[in-house]
Design brief:
The protein has helices at residues 3-29, 37-54, 59-82, 88-107, 131-155, 157-167, 169-174, 179-205, 216-230, 236-259, 270-298; strands at 111-113, 207-209. Strands 1-2 form a two-stranded antiparallel sheet. The radius of gyration is 19 Å and the shape is globular. By secondary structure, it is mostly helical. It is 75% helix and 2% strand. It has one domain. It contains 11 helices and 2 strands. The protein starts with a helix and ends with a helix.
Length: 300
Amino acid sequence: MSLYEILGTLEIGFVFGLVALGAFLTFRVLDFPDLTVEGSFPLGAAVCAALIVTLDVNPWLATLAAALAGFAAGWLTALLNVRFGILNILAGILVAIALYSINLRIMGGPNKPLLGDPTVFVWLDGFGVPTYKLTPILLGAIVLAVLVGLNLFLRTGYGIAMRAAGANPQMAAAMGIDVGLMKLFGLAIANALTAMAGALFAQVFGAADAYMGIGVIIVGLASVIVGTSILPSRTILQATFACIVGAVLYRLAVALSLNAGWLGLQASDVQLVTAILVAFALIAQRSGAGLRRRLTRGRP
């Protein structure tokens, strides 16, 4: 792989690091299998692209608006589950399906090009260094800021209450915690992160597309599984950092697989590679856990 390809892999890895943090929040903290991200990822891209291209909004404000749109999508999913008793997986599917049509409305078509329009990376042009070398640094700084903010939030009383609601809903409710409210805010925050990732993804590649959310949930879960399997994740900080590392390693594995000429893979095989990598990570995690249990039982 060339330096350009490696830096491009880092860019996408950092972007999907935000998706991984959202997946960690829903699947690991709240124990809520949320499929809304299949729609909130392109929602963030659509909102950001439409605001930049149509209304000439500042790219940073457009990215923030995209995150707020994702917040609303996650809130709606949790509302369907908490207030109306719809199964969590089905609630996410319903919202994701609805968002497909909404995204088409926002963009006025299946895609919205951003070529020639300002993005959050436009100010990097003044440093005299090729933009592709600085873009991963900016994305890494954004992800680091989100990582710090999320960890600070999860250390607050509200964040601890959210973690308790996910770990043991009955005990949390007995202690006076509003479990439903924790789900509402937790899913909203997770989808805000995913929509922000979609907005940044669209600005990196110069276009938003209604189909760009396909397989995003698998990428997020793969990042969480790979990261937490490789790195220690005994604390929230370690676990969230592992998710970001997992996202980068996952994208690197995909890039290496597609660049391995002897495998005969093409760009259209990325979903196949994703499925194989996720299955391998799950099998490895399960086998590793079984091995640790056997070794523990064998100790005197």
